[in-house]
Design a protein that fits this description.
This protein is mostly beta strands. The protein contains no helices and 11 strands. The model has no long low-confidence stretch (mean pLDDT about 95).
Length: about 120
Amino acid sequence: QVDVVESGGGLVQPGGSLRLSCAASGFTFSRFAMSWYRQAPGKERELVARISSIGGSTNYADSVKGRFIISRDNAKNTVYLQMNSLKPEDTAVYYCNAALIIYDYWGQGTQVTVSS
């Protein structure tokens, strides 16, 4: 059974930091590219960051470059998103995604709210 579970969301003030975690099971984690997406109310889901299967390559949305860092620990089947200098416009539900060819797995999401 495939399971993708996000955690670490919450309420944070502008300028603050949060670290999201995504724990995966039920598939060979180390073979999958892992990504974080987000969806704000009334907006389409957008890619935030992606990391290759062995972690050698990362990509970021322009809106988060220099503030967010994606990383993975294949021994723990976990991917992380360190979010710094958070802004109100970062408020969204953040989703973890695992992708490999035709396989595409999603978590249920974790809410991040940036507000004073």
